């Protein structure tokens, strides 16, 4: 009899296992049904434009199933894009509060929450979120980028600089470029107070972070000139040409002034001839023509500009060409006609923007170091082409 009981034992175990398995399956089935009811209710609310009820229902579903996290991120981002920030915040805050989420999802939720606060103009709260992620492998660089954007908006340059160590460690060119401009902002303030040594030290730091920052060299040239160190200023202007040929037309006049004070005007024209040969820019051409006219006479200068305009026609070059036709010995009627043409051309050019942002295409007649549209630094440069340089 006892043997029979022993024989029945595996059968009982198998039965127990089978029943248990069925019970788990049943529980899972019930949970899934519950989830799908919550989802379909949420979707129904969404479709009937009752978004707040939809969010509650879908967030409730999230408590049960982690697989839907991505869908929640997508939903919140959609809300943010539509400008419904309170709804995006509600979803992201809920995700941050969920303890059982994997670290990666949790960090994403904190990051997105930071972006929500930033869009809402709540800089303090956004800063707190991004600061939490500085050590994150996935979100460290992105968070630092947003932090610098916040400090740029609040003009808190020193706060930005306080993150220098990490920015240098990450070695991200764009962040280094931004930080160099933070130093330039501080240098501009020190420049206004004529704090010579402080300006130089700040600009040296800027150039260490970003050797391509022509703004740092431009400011350095200004402070050297102000303190009668024109030789050093001339070197800065030359460096700007090496750094950024597109920005260079804006410093030619200041450079001529600097060389004039050094009594080395011939050196300047040698340099500017080289600039013209390499870039064929209209500013370099117009400045160089003054030298040709002085050295070789007006006839040679007119021949030079004619061949230059054939090589690369620009409206500014043509305007200068018309001005050169004006002769003191000419009749009043002839000169008046030439004046009329020049006025028409300069009127036309005034309608055109002098600068365009190389990043977003924003056009402006005024120069800004930070683009008013995309906020990138040192991207507004003189327009190239027929109506520009
Ligand atoms: Zn821009």
From TrEMBL:
Keyword annotations of the record: Cell inner membrane, Cell membrane, Iron, Membrane, Metal-binding, Repeat, TPR repeat, Transmembrane, Transmembrane helix
Residues covered by the LapB rubredoxin metal binding domain: 355-382
Alphabetized Pfam families for the sequence: Zn_ribbon_LapB
Domain of life of the source: Bacteria
Residues at which Fe cation binds: 357, 360, 371, 374
InterPro entries: CellSynth/LPSAsmb/PSIAsmb, LapB, Rubredoxin_2, TPR-like_helical_dom_sf, TPR_rpt
Major location category of this protein: membrane
PROSITE patterns reported for this sequence: TPR
Transmembrane segments: none
Membrane protein topology class: Single-pass membrane protein
Cytoplasmic topology ranges: 21-389
TPR repeats (start-end): 180-213
Compartment(s) of residence: Cell inner membrane
HAMAP family cross-referenced by the UniProt entry: LPS_assembly_LapB (MF_00994)
PANTHER family: LIPOPOLYSACCHARIDE ASSEMBLY PROTEIN B, TPR REPEAT-CONTAINING PROTEIN PA4667
Family as reported in the entry's similarity comment: Belongs to the LapB family.
Function: Modulates cellular lipopolysaccharide (LPS) levels by regulating LpxC, which is involved in lipid A biosynthesis. May act by modulating the proteolytic activity of FtsH towards LpxC. May also coordinate assembly of proteins involved in LPS synthesis at the plasma membrane.
Descriptive protein name: Lipopolysaccharide assembly protein B
